[in-house]
Amino acid sequence: MKNYYEHYRQMEEFPVAMAYVPWQKLDKIYENLEEAFHEGTIFPELNKPFCGRRCVK
């Protein structure tokens, strides 16, 4: 347990983080509900499939 408390004490030295998250405007929806279910979202803008690698063009 001593190691845990030492690690926690070191974490107190870091500043609080801040993040910027822009508002999303989702105005399109899938017409076909089966397709939306398959994609995991009803919003096409949120359909970001995992490529399994870096998505660099």
Write the layout of secondary structure elements.
Blueprint lengths: L1 H10 L21 H7 L18
Fraction of residues in helices? 25-40%
Mean pLDDT: 80
SS strand fraction? under 5%
Largest sheet: none
Query: What spatial form do the alpha-carbon principal axes imply?
Result: elongated
Global Rg: 21 Å
Count of DSSP-assigned helices: 2
Unreliable spans are none
Reading the helices and strands in chain order gives: HH
What structural class results from the helix and strand content? mainly alpha
State the end-to-end distance.
48 Å
Structural account:
The protein is an all-alpha fold. The protein has a domain at 19-57. 30% of the residues lie in helices and 0% in strands. It has helices at 2-11, 33-39. The longest helix is centred in the first third of the chain and has 10 residues, at 2-11.
Short description:
The chain is mainly alpha-helical and 57 residues long. Helices cover 30% and strands 0% of the residues. It has a domain at 19-57.
What distinguishing features does this structure have?
57 residues, mainly alpha, 2 helices, elongated
